[in-house]
Amino acid sequence: MPLLKAYRVMSYVTGVVLLTLVLIAMPLKYFGDTPGPTMIVGQLHGYLYMAYVVIVLLLGFSLRWRPVRIVLVMLAGTVPFAAFFAERRIIANVREEQGGGRQGRDEKVPAGE
C-alpha cells in the first residue's frame, strides 16, 4: 500500500526534524544566542508537518479510521518521539487488520462442519 509507505517515511522524517528542532536548534537559540537554526529547522518542520497531516488524512480516510484516531495520529507529529511510537502502532494495527481480513475471506469451511 503506497499510502502506508508514505506515512512511514513522513512519520520518521517529521519525527527526526522535530527532534532536531527541540534537541539542537532550540538549545542553540536559548543558551547559545543563535536564533538562525531555529528559524530554518522550525520552518522545515512546519512544511513537513503539513505533508504529514495530508498523508495521515488520506490514510485515515482510505482505512476508514474514526476521526479521533486521525487527530491523535496527526498530533503525534507535534510531540517529540511520539511520531515513532505512533508509526509502530499504526503499522502493527494495519498489518493485523489486513492479515485478519484476508484470512477470514480465504478460508473455506466445509458445509458439514
Number of helices: 4
User: What is the residue-mean pLDDT, rounded to a whole number?
Assistant: 87
Given helix and strand content, the structural type is mainly alpha
List unreliable stretches of 5+ residues: 102-113
Helix share of residues? over 70%
Number of strands: 0
- End-to-end gap: 36 Å
Order of H and E elements = HHHH
| Beta-strand residue fraction | under 5%
Task: Estimate the global geometry from the Cα principal axes.
Answer: elongated
Describe the sheet with the most strands: none
Q: Over all CA atoms, what is the radius of gyration?
A: 19 Å
Key words describing this protein structure:
113 residues; mainly alpha
